[in-house]
Amino acid sequence: MKKTILSLLLCLTFFVSCKEKVAYAQTEKKQQDVSVPEQRVNPEIEKLRVVLSSMSDRCKAAIPNGNPEEFLSDLHKVLSEEKKSSRSDELSLLYLIDKKHHVGSDYVPKDLKPVKNNDLWNVSRNDLSLRPESYAALENLSRAALSDGIKLMVSSTYRSYKYQEGLFNRYVKQDGLAEAERYSARPGTSQHQLGCAVDFGSITDDWGDTKMGKWVYNHAAEYGWSLSFPQEYEDITGYMWECWHFRYIGVEACRFQKKWFSDVQQFMLEFMDAWLKSE
Fold it and tell me: What phi-psi label fits residue 263: left (phi over 0), alpha (psi between -120 and 50 degrees) or beta?
């Protein structure tokens, strides 16, 4: 049966405990003038065990067998990159926002940059904008796409609370509340309000099969963009599959997500939220 890193942590805890007992026995057996080196354990190991224990069963099952110290090393790479990329007076690029975690109606990202038609990408409308970090990452992604002969189409970016409220209410009238909640966020719970999410192309399922869609899917993570709502995870994310919706979280976070969380953004963000709150 496949072990997860949590089971390894439990084994590690037992191993350390046994070593401590052996060391104590050796000390008793020897004379008092013989010192036994103290067994030191990374204090974050226990914190990691506690945090992982709090995750959902499906999240824990998604975490592969691995070395806890390696996990922690990768985690700190993510935190270091996030600290360098994000402003201290702004929400983290890894901020968890979903149906249970929200922002207020007055939240607007600082220094939003307009996203207009230019040599790097096309836009479907003229009122688009992104956080500066996400804008720079979109530039990098678009340059790479252009080098492969693809010019990206940006169709949706930052949305205010009020805009999302109107959009959600329209979908409720159109399809009913239960169905609308499968594909549209209530105001205050949308990644778009954070100013770091982009909808590409036609915003339809068939976009994923286009040349542009396939390129973005295969290369987005190299530039820090993560697919938010993958197939077969509606029970986890709260939303249907959206092949066009990507969120900028940073290159290291994308690597961390792929390596340790089966490349599921929601699992990784839930872990990061629990980790930071446990400090």
Answer: left
What's the gap between Cα 130 and its chain centre? Answer: 18
pLDDT in tens, 63-111: 998 999 999 999 999 999 999 988 889 999 999 999 999 999 999 999 9
Backbone angles phi, psi at 111, to 5 degrees: 55, 45
Nearest to 267 by CA among 237, 241, 226: 237
- Are 8 and 66 a contacting pair, CB within 8 Å? yes
3 state DSSP class of 4:
coil
CA dihedral 188→192→194→196, nearest 10 degrees, is 170
201-218 pLDDT, tens digit each: 999 999 999 999 999 999
**Distances from the Cα of 208 to the Cαs of 204, 212, 261, 270, in angstroms?**
8, 8, 22, 26
Distance CA 265, CA 237 (A): 9
Nearest Cα to Cα of residue 248 among 104, 86, 122, 80: 86
| Strand 152-156 with 121-123, pairing | parallel
Pairing label, strands 242-248, 225-229: antiparallel
**Cα(172)–Cα(183) distance, integer angstroms:** 11
pLDDT one-digit tens code per residue, 114-172: 999 999 999 999 999 999 999 999 999 999 999 999 999 999 999 999 999 999 999 99
